[in-house]
Amino acid sequence: NDSYSSMESGRRKGLNGVLSSLSLLCVILDIQLDGVLGATHVEIEQHLEMGRKLLAAGQLAEALSHYHYAVEGDSKNYLTYYKRAAVFLAMGKSKSALPDLTRAIQLKPDFLAARLQRGNILLKQGNTQDAREDFETVLHRSPDQEEARDQLMRANKLEELQEEAHAAHHSGDYSTTITVLDRVVELSPWDPESRELRADCYIRLGDPRKAIHDLTPTTQLRNDNRAAFLKLSILHYSLGEHQESLGHVRECLKLDQDDKDCLSHYKQVKKLSKQLDSAEEHIEEARYQEAIVKYESVMRREPNVPYYTNKANERICFCLVKNKMTAKAIDICSEAHQRDPRNINILRDRAEAFILNQDYEKAVEDYQEAREFDTENNEIREGLERAQKLLKLSRKRDYYKILGVNRSANKQEIIKAYRKLAKQWHPDNFREEAKKKEAEKRFIDIASAKEVLTDPEKRQKFDSGEDPLDPESQQGGQGRPFHFNPFESGGNYHFKFNH
């Protein structure tokens, strides 16, 4: 028994000791907690004051951070939420302001300023039902509130217009729908639905640019708007703007990397974009045949979007001209011109193909047509002037025609043609006086053609529409003072041709 009493006494003492320690700890904590709460209250006031000053100075982001601290420090103060909402609105973040105004109203249901502000946001978001409730509540408590009365009328008008727009869209009258939605968007600029509906009308009426203009803000107005990002990507893709298309579909995948529709479209755009970029790199490096292969691949990959077929034909036309594949260039350029008749690049390239083919009249016609579409383009103006010079020159002497070679002929081909013709038209081959005179003239022309076309500088001048052997065509009248004739002065000249 003594042993039991001793144990019981010890247990009581231990328990009393623990209780005494706990009481002391509670007192200490209570004192500390009072200190913390007191300091927090002061800090909250400091944050509110700093927030007010920064807001007045227009430093919105800095002001917002102070209001965040104030709300965290005192989550029961309706005014703090209201003030933070004001900062969000000043920053154009109405979606973030709305929960703060709702919390302020929950904490103080008769806070009419918050109700009026929330009603204004809801109206701009196109939510007429909830906006009307807020305006009616304000008017019930304060019947003379003029702004609430005006906004209530706006909410009723907006609801009428929304119904009218949907009815017109349902009946397939897209032009009327757009006209009505113009007024809807004026009253509710933050409503994604009205913009999406108007974008749909623009798409149906064949105006993708305006559809893009309407859809772009909806990506911010609606949370997780993957559908809008995908639609924007598809619209840009249809216009041939593959880089912009890639940008939007990537935004969709940032929101959900497993989105099947966005992932499928991304792969399609990425492959095409890679081929287009690769083709242009080949062109920059003057690897025109490789570029042609890439653009042919583009047409196979995307036959349903006219832009890419047209673009591929335009660039293939350009490459064929650069490779001096004259006949094929004229065919492809003509096909491209039929598809895209106002494209000045195609007209320019076909004109150059006609020049290679020595069909200067057609070259002039193409450059003139291109000039009608773009009067300010210097490249077209210079090309037209050159084609006109070449046409004028061709009516005099065309050295390429004299030797019977293409404009793309190299020096070896020119010399070969010269030797053959010089041998054929050498005056010693003719005995009859009239024929001898004609042979002399032909021989001089053949020799002149060889002189010009085997001299890079003279050939370049001739290709630019200027005859380097004609004093009249030399600028400022400075040029060759005379033209050497091996048959004048009774000379007896003999030429040998080594084969």
Descriptive account of the structure:
Keywords: Disulfide bond, Endoplasmic reticulum, Repeat, Signal, TPR repeat, Unfolded protein response. The chain has 499 residues and is mainly α. It is built from 23 helices and no strands. The chain is elongated and about 125 Å long. Residues 1-8, 22-39, 476-485 and 487-499 have low confidence and may be disordered.
| Helix and strand sequence | HHHHHHHHHHHHHHHHHHHHHHH
Pairing-aware structural class of the strands and helices?
A: mainly alpha
Strand content: under 5%
Which percent bin holds the helix content? over 70%
Mean pLDDT: 86
Number of helices: 23
Please outline the major beta sheet.
none
Count of beta strands: 0
Shape descriptor reads: elongated
CA radius of gyration is 42 Å
Low-confidence stretches: 1-8, 22-39, 476-485, 487-499
Distance between the termini: 143 Å
Summarize the structure.
It is built from 23 helices and no strands. It has 499 residues and is mainly alpha-helical.
Task: Pick out its properties.
about 500 residues; 23 helices; disordered C terminus; mainly alpha; about 0% strand
Which helices and strands, and how do they pair?
Elements: H1 2-56, H2 60-73, H3 78-90, H4 94-107, H5 112-124, H6 128-141, H7 146-170, H8 174-187, H9 192-204, H10 208-221, H11 226-238, H12 242-255, H13 260-284, H14 288-301, H15 306-322, H16 326-339, H17 344-356, H18 360-373, H19 378-394, H20 399-403, H21 411-424, H22 433-453, H23 456-463
Signal peptide: 1-38
Protein name: DnaJ homolog subfamily C member 3
Region (Disordered): 455-491
